[in-house]
Amino acid sequence: MSQLSITLLRLGYLVLLWGMVLVAIGVLRSDLYGTRVTSRGRGLRRKPHPDARSQKSAAPARASVGVRPGSVSTRSPAVAHLAIISGSLKGTTVPLGETSILIGRASTCTIVIEDDFLSARHCRIFPENGQWFVEDLGSTNGTFLGNQRIDDPVPFGIGERVRIGSTTLELRS
């Protein structure tokens, strides 16, 4: 073998060794500091329409016109946010809108909680017919509304608490 090929092999081995060291450091860093929290939905808020003030005052009068008893309302419930009152994300509040909130360990969830007792997709909180519901998504350790374990969608009222793993969530107005 020529001197050039031996030098290239040495250099290639050195680059491979440093690559493995950097990967190991990255794994240790993610274990020590956890996952990076990214903000979602930033910049998606719409500006209020210029006539919003006049529509707010006229909205209650129009809401009572044409609504039949027993008709289904498609409005979202009048709840402002979901508060995390215990667990690793204690003090976090999540504003609620017209879409469901998915909670679990997976990065695709709305609320990502690093807890060994949570499933990747643990539970969801969603609005339906003017009311909020909580549903367990087949988790191993379960979802509890108060002290009762739930499996099917259950109505979730203001002030009620949902416990998943070591995290407790409360619906607030």
UniProtKB/TrEMBL annotation:
<dbReference type="InterPro" id="IPR050923">
    <property type="entry name" value="Cell_Proc_Reg/RNA_Proc"/>
</dbReference>
<feature type="transmembrane region" description="Helical">
    <location>
        <begin position="12"/>
        <end position="32"/>
    </location>
</feature>
<keyword id="KW-0597">Phosphoprotein</keyword>
<keyword id="KW-0812">Transmembrane</keyword>
<keyword id="KW-0472">Membrane</keyword>
<feature type="region of interest" description="Disordered">
    <location>
        <begin position="39"/>
        <end position="72"/>
    </location>
</feature>
<feature type="domain" description="FHA">
    <location>
        <begin position="101"/>
        <end position="150"/>
    </location>
</feature>
<dbReference type="InterPro" id="IPR008984">
    <property type="entry name" value="SMAD_FHA_dom_sf"/>
</dbReference>
<dbReference type="Pfam" id="PF00498">
    <property type="entry name" value="FHA"/>
</dbReference>
<protein>
    <submittedName>
        <fullName>PSer/pThr/pTyr-binding forkhead associated (FHA) protein</fullName>
    </submittedName>
</protein>
<dbReference type="InterPro" id="IPR000253">
    <property type="entry name" value="FHA_dom"/>
</dbReference>
<keyword id="KW-1133">Transmembrane helix</keyword>
